[in-house]
Every structure is written in structure tokens, then in C-alpha cells.
Design a protein that fits this description.
Elements: E1 12-19, E2 22-31, E3 49-62, E4 65-70, E5 77-81, E6 85-90, E7 93-94, E8 109-117, H1 121-124, E9 126-134, E10 140-149, E11 154-162, E12 172-177, E13 183-187, E14 214-218, E15 240-243, E16 248-253, E17 260-264, E18 271-276, E19 313-315, E20 321-326, E21 339-343, E22 348-353, E23 363-367, E24 374-380, E25 386-391, E26 407-414
Antiparallel strand pairs: 1-2, 2-3, 3-26, 4-5, 5-6, 6-7, 8-9, 9-10, 10-11, 12-13, 13-14, 14-15, 16-17, 17-18, 18-19, 20-21, 21-22, 22-23, 24-25, 25-26
The structure holds calcium ion (CA).
The site of calcium ion (CA) has 6 residues, from loops.
């Protein structure tokens, strides 16, 4: 590995090329020593290291790819497209046809969000798809469907959970399966009044009697496990794990502590990275560093109120953090334990190192900013590389004439030279 002798600009783009029809780029990324501000010797700290990375387009022609999930014991992966299709990349090649079997008449999906596998998928072939469910009149909510995937098609797809969160505002809808085998599902604040100072919609995020503005924890049949924090409390929904969320989009479990972390998209400013502990209140909309779209502060007490959790990290101005993962692979030993956060409006992949000895701050590095893309998902592949789902511009929702198949899956590898 190259050693730095002087300060370098982080993540410089070295080259861009098209090889055998696939776009590739090479970047220099810079990982500082554990307490070195700029990679030079600093007190007793080790110098930083240069990590030269190669970014390869591995699948093209996707419409707003939203979530990707690797199949067990395989390099194949499933990808959801927001307008409603489930796709598969087999042997490194995107199957030209969507996976059939979604019962469009029975389950009216305005968008398809996450696809995640049952913990026992290898045996029972069950998977879960979180989606935005539509009813007559146009209202939507977040639902979780379960079906069987035999390798080529979906079968017996049915709802196992429909959130009591009908409305028209922000949906969220990220699902992940935790190390405890439970399904975690985010529900947005449904704030139909987000261009006004009327807080009545968004205050539902503080109401334990509603699924709005929550992170939920569900069993594989969509019911609440008995050890959820509000089980047995009068007037509270038993599915709630944490509350006071605006638009939580990324969920990942810390590889060392086992704790759940989440990214949350704020309004104008006030994006957050939170450590989610069961039963805790994450503040929205009573505590927020963001501004409502009127330009007014979301809260006069923007930083803290008793009984509410402060974020571990925040962004003002906003980057719109879409996704979150912890790197645990062998391909980038310098990055092990680091957080990777995909950003939409921020158009980057953010690397965050929290493993600095106190009182040193965490290190942040913006990657891929030169690609001018919105990062919708970030995953570690079974090969130890990073896989990103990206959109090339801000497109409309399902049904929009602006939808075009210009989304891609990118893979980040160490450069060979
Ligand atoms: Ca918060």
C-alpha cells in the first residue's frame, strides 16, 4: 500500500474509461491514521494510507434501483426498481426480464422498496418486499409482503403487515432483517403539510398509537414479537421499536456491538445518523436541526429535549442519506468497521470512521462526488467488494413521464495498480 508523504486531496478522480461496454473509474481515496489530521506524522500517530479504488459498472439500464440483496451462497443478487419491478443479476448479468409473480391486482403497489430474505431463505425460499401500498382515492401506506422465490418467479405473495399510516406524505419503507431474525421496517412521517408550519401531521411521529414516523420490529408473519418495547402498554402499537423519526432510510447493525444504527433524512438540513435503542424517542418534529420548507426552523429547541435522543452525527445542509452499511470484508482492510452512507442530494458515498481514540473526532470522506450520481443503496457483496445502486438524476415517482432506465449497479474494488 502506498504511503502518503504529504497532504492529498481526498478521493481524487484519476481516470475514467469504457471497457467492453462498461464504464469504469479510478479514484485515489485517502484513509488517515487513527489520530492524524492530514496523513502526516502528528504526535505519535501513524501516517495515513492511500487507497486506490476502481469503480466498475456491473449492471445498467435499471429504473431507479432502490435496494439490492445477495442470495445466499451465490454472487447473484436481487434488485428492486422503485416503479414496481423485482430484477435479478445472475452470473454478473442483469436478466432482461423482471421476475414475474407480483399480484398487481391484489396488492396495488405505488412503489417497490426493499427486498430482504427470510433468515431461513435457503430452506424455505421466503422473501419480504416492503412497498408503498395504494388504495382508492390515492392514499398510500407502507406494507410488507411475503412470498416464495423459486429462483425464477414469485409465488404466493401476500401482505403480512400493513401499517396504520395512510396518507400522502413521506413514506420511507426501508426493510432489513436483523441478526435477531426480526424484520425492521421504517415508516415515514407522512407529513402532507410539509410546505406549511402546520405540524399536526408530523406530530404523529410522537404518537405511540400510530405507526407513522416509527421504526417497527416484526416477526416473519408480520406480528409483533412479545419482547418489543411497547408490548402491553395501553394505547401503544406493539410493533413499534423506536419513534420520533421523519424519514429513516438506512438500517444496519454494528458488527461489534450488535446495535442498530439508522440514517434519517431531515427536511432542509437536519439529516441524522442515529443509534437506535429499543423504546427510545428520536425527537422528530420536537427536536430537529432542519428547517421546514417554509424556511422556518422545524423546532425552536433544535438540539435537545429531555427524554429524546440526540443524533450521533448530523448534516446541515442536507445530503439526504439513503442507506447505511458497516464494512466487514477483507478487500479493504483500512476500511474495516467503517460506516458507508449513500447520499441522494449529496451525490456521494460517504465513508465515516468512528474508531478514533477519544477525544479525536470521527473522520468523514466523500467518495465518488465526481460521478454526479445519487447513491440509493450500498451493500457489501459476498466477495468483499462494495455494491452501489445509483440513479443518474432526480426522477419522478411511479407513473412519471420522467422515469428512464438510467440507473446502475456499481462495484468498488481495490485498484490493481
Ligand atoms: Ca432526531
Amino acid at each position: 500500500m502506498l504511503r502518503l508523504r504529504s497532504t492529498l486531496a481526498a478521493a481524487a478522480l484519476l481516470s475514467a474509461a469504457t471497457v467492453a461496454g462498461a464504464q469504469t473509474w479510478t479514484f485515489d481515496s485517502y484513509t488517515p491514521g487513527v489520530c492524524s489530521a492530514n496523513g502526516g506524522q502528528h504526535g505519535g500517530c501513524p501516517a495515513g494510507e492511500l487507497v486506490r479504488i476502481h469503480v466498475v459498472t456491473v449492471a445498467d439500464g435499471l429504473v431507479r434501483p432502490w435496494h439490492l440483496t445477495f442470495l445466499p451462497g451465490s454472487s447473484d443478487y436481487l434488485v428492486t426498481e422503485l416503479p414496481g419491478d423485482l430484477r435479478i443479476v445472475r452470473g454478473g448479468k442483469l436478466d432482461a426480464k423482471p421476475i414475474p409473480g407480483w399480484p398487481a391486482d391484489a396488492l396495488r403497489a405505488r412503489s417497490m422498496n426493499s427486498v430482504v430474505l427470510h433468515p431461513d431463505f435457503a430452506r424455505n425460499r421466503l422473501l419480504f418486499i416492503s412497498y408503498v401500498k395504494q388504495r382508492d382515492g390515492g392514499d398510500t401506506t407502507i406494507a410488507l409482503a411475503r412470498g416464495r422465490f423459486d429462483g425464477t418467479k414469485l409465488e404466493r405473495v401476500e401482505d403480512v403487515f400493513v401499517a396504520d399510516a395512510w396518507g400522502t406524505g413521506a413514506t420511507a419503507g426501508r426493510a432489513e432483517v436483523g441478526p435477531d431474525g426480526m424484520i425492521y421496517l421504517t415508516v415515514g412521517d407522512r407529513d402532507a403539510a410539509n410546505v406549511t408550519d402546520d405540524a399536526s401531521f408530523r406530530m404523529l411521529a410522537q404518537d405511540l398509537g400510530s405507526h407513522v414516523g416509527k421504526v417497527l420490529r416484526l416477526r416473519d408473519d408480520g406480528t409483533a414479537p412479545p419482547d418489543n418495547p411497547f408490548v402491553g402498554r395501553a394505547g401503544a402499537r406493539p410493533e413499534i421499536y423506536t419513534y420520533g423519526h421523519r424519514n429513516a432510510q438506512g438500517l444496519a447493525w454494528h458488527p461489534d456491538t450488535g446495535e442498530l444504527w439508522a440514517t434519517e433524512i431531515g427536511p432542509m438540513g437536519g439529516d441524522e445518523l442515529n443509534r437506535l435503542l429499543p423504546g427510545r424517542n428520536y425527537g422528530w418534529p420536537l427536536v430537529s436541526l432542519g428547517k421546514i420548507y417554509t424556511g422556518h426552523l422545524a423546532s425552536e429547541q433544535s438540539w435537545y429535549r429531555p427524554g429524546m435522543e440526540m443524533p450521533e452525527m448530523f448534516w446541515v445542509p442536507a445530503i439526504s442519506p439513503s442507506s447505511l452499511m458497516f464494512y466487514t470484508g477483507d478487500r479493504f482492510p483500512q476500511w474495516r468497521g467503517h460506516y458507508f452512507i449513500g447520499a441522494l442530494s449529496g451525490q456521494q458515498l460517504l465513508r465515516v470512521a468512528f474508531n478514533q481514540p477519544p477525544p479525536q473526532p470521527e473522520r468523514r470522506e466523500s467518495l465518488l462526488t465526481q460521478l454526479d450520481v445519487r447513491v440509493r443503496d450500498v451493500r457489501q457483496g459476498p466477495d468483499g467488494y462494495l455494491y452501489l445502486a445509483i440513479e443518474r438524476d432526480q426522477q419522478g415517482g411511479p407513473g412519471s413521464a420522467r422515469l428512464t432506465p438510467n440507473g446502475s449497479i456499481l462495484r468498488i474494488e481495490p485498484a490493481k495498480n
